[in-house]
Amino acid sequence: MFISWQQKAVEHTVTKYSHAQQSTLVQTRRQGRHGMNTHVVKIANRECSCGKWNQFGIPCSHAQKVCGAYNISAASMVKDYYDVMAYNNTYSKHFEPVQSEDYWDDPNFQLVHDPTIRTVTRPGRNQTTRIHNEMDWRQTRARQEAQQQQGDYSIQENVS
């Protein structure tokens, strides 16, 4: 992930705004239908408006380009939990195996099945809860265009 973002960073343009906060504007290069996006990177806060740096803890391509502009090592901006010392500290403790269920304490409560809590299902296929994105829109648009072209051909045949 770090390497692929590093390769993408080569094609970004950086505009410095605040040297004290190390706040910059990064513009990506157009690649086909994608690109020409603008992102705000604040190195001091370790954040980028694309959200990848916050989500993964690894500087995104925009942040890596800004690190290069300020002569900062992007590897030093990776979250501490990716550090080898953190990994070793996590697994240096002694783990005890779990005993058989026969030795477990009895819970001081009883689980009761309540059939009224169950949601009522409608007949037919459940509706999806997935949020559609531009990939779905392109497929739908291509399908509509193909259907429209087929309709145009059938109209031309009827006219002839």
Q: What do you see in this structure?
A:
The radius of gyration is 27 Å and the shape is flat. A 4-stranded antiparallel β-sheet has the order 1-2-3-4. Helix 1 (about 1-10) crosses helix 3. The protein has helices at about 1-10, 50-55, 60-70, 85-90, 135-160; strands at about 15-20, 25, 40, 45-50. With about 160 residues, the protein is α+β, with helices and mostly antiparallel strands. The model has no long low-confidence stretch (mean pLDDT about 75). The chain contains 5 helices and 4 strands, in the order H-E-E-E-E-H-H-H-H. One of its GO terms (molecular function) is zinc ion binding. It comes from Sesamum angolense. InterPro entries: Znf_PMZ (IPR006564), Znf_SWIM (IPR007527).
Task: Present the secondary structure layout.
Blueprint (H helix, E strand, L loop, with lengths): L1 H8 L3 E6 L4 E5 L10 E5 L4 E2 L3 H5 L4 H9 L14 H8 L42 H26 L1
Antiparallel strand pairs: 1-2, 2-3, 3-4
Helix pairs in contact: 1-3
Distance between the termini: 58 Å
* Low-pLDDT runs: none
- Work out the strand percent: 5-15%
Q: Tell me about the largest β-sheet.
A: 4 strands, antiparallel
Provide the structure class: alpha+beta
Shape: flat
| Number of helices, where a helix is a run of at least 4 consecutive DSSP H or I residues | 5
What is the helical fraction, as a range of percent? 25-40%
Secondary-structure element order, N to C: HEEEEHHHH
Trace the largest sheet across and list its strands.
1-2-3-4
How many beta-strand runs? 4
Mind telling me the C-alpha Rg? 27 Å
Query: Can you give the mean pLDDT?
Result: 77
